[in-house]
């Protein structure tokens, strides 16, 4: 198994956590999203992943892209420990949290969007950072209400065992802290992320622990 990753990529971070939780060994192949104009945009990488994004996951002769698809592949091929436990309704709850982060919050604050704002639309750094904070805070406000009021939430998003929801939430909290978001406004999210950070699989997946960390 081989994972093309960037240490600060939220999407790659999710997959690293999943691989660690599943106890799967893999080769780490760094792709720097800023160096050399973006190594993800080089022709040789785009032969693997035409989107020019990370992560890209290799299992044997098979190439997979998109973090949630990769994680669900790992869930189906290595079902223990389960990242989508419970009843169909429970799994829908877990997926809904994961998708809120991965599809509603993260994409509008992705590096590609921020670079377009700055370099093409000529948005200044202050306005760009305001854009980032607006969409992250807006998403966290609604997510905090959901997590604070659902009885299925425990130490983590679903009980006390890591699930797909936590794999998506924790990297987004890392991003929020990078941009100096006041996490005390989202006490449930902060509590879950801080608890997850103490779990070995999450700690080893953290950006600062990666071989390409700066």
Description:
This protein has two domains: 2-81, Glutaredoxin; 88-202, Up-down Bundle (Glutathione S-transferase Yfyf (Class Pi), Chain A, domain 2). Helix content is 53%, strand content 7%. Helix 7 crosses helix 8 (187-197). The chain is built from nine helices and four strands, in the order βαβαββααααααα. The longest helix is centred in the middle third of the chain and has 25 residues, at 125-149. It has helices at 10-22, 43-46, 67-77, 88-105, 111-120, 125-149, 164-178, 187-197, 200-205; strands spanning 2-5, 27-30, 56-59, 62-65. The chain has 214 residues and is an alpha+beta fold. A hairpin with a 2-residue loop joins strand 3 and strand 4 (62-65). A four-stranded mixed beta sheet has the order 2-1-3-4, covered by helices on one side.
Task: Describe this structure in a few short sentences.
This protein has helices spanning 10-22, 43-46, 67-77, 88-105, 111-120, 125-149, 164-178, 187-197, 200-205, and strands at 2-5, 27-30, 56-59, 62-65. With 214 residues, it is α+β, with helices and mostly antiparallel strands.
Features:
214 residues, alpha+beta, Glutaredoxin, Glutathione S-transferase Yfyf (Class Pi), Chain A, domain 2, 2 domains, 9 helices, 4 strands, 53% helix
